Amino acid sequence: MNTLLMLFIFVPILSVILLALNLLLAPHRPDEAKVSAYECGFNAIQGQTRSTFQIHFYLVCMLFLVFDLEILLLFPIAVSLYQVSIFGFSIALIFFIVLTIGFVLEIGSGAIKLSSLDLKELTTNQKY
């Protein structure tokens, strides 16, 4: 038998066995903290698991995802910059220009601007 085929057979079987052992042998102690909703580190209000958040949380999340993916694209460019020709350099330069234009537009629209009033409001509404 091919070793790759053996691997595709062995790994799922081992995974199912280990999951079954976990279900059979692990202690089951339900706790209120384990079954309650977790909302970005803030404690949920009693009886209301879906509390409202300001839009700044979602904007920061989206911007983080965009710039995190940008970092993923920068690593291969940085590693292979010596090996690519002028065409590869021009593609990387166009990528940086588009990224810079997007960042300037985000700053211009006020998407990443948190004033001190917003920060004070975010921190004082939570009851601990």
For the structure shown, list the relevant keywords.
128 residues; mainly alpha; Methane Monooxygenase Hydroxylase, Chain G, domain 1; 67% helix; flat; electron transport; respiratory chain; NADH-ubiquinone oxidoreductase chain 3; NADH dehydrogenase (ubiquinone) activity; EC 7.1.1.2
Care to describe what's here?
It catalyses: a ubiquinone + NADH + 5 H(+)(in) = a ubiquinol + NAD(+) + 4 H(+)(out). This is NADH-ubiquinone oxidoreductase chain 3. It is found in: Membrane; Mitochondrion membrane. Belongs to the complex I subunit 3 family. With 128 residues, this protein is mainly alpha-helical. It has a single domain, classed as Methane Monooxygenase Hydroxylase, Chain G, domain 1 (Up-down Bundle). Helix content is 67%, strand content 0%. The protein is built from 5 helices and no strands. It has helices spanning 3-25, 32-35, 55-80, 86-109, 116-124. The protein is flat. The termini are far apart. The mean pLDDT is 75.
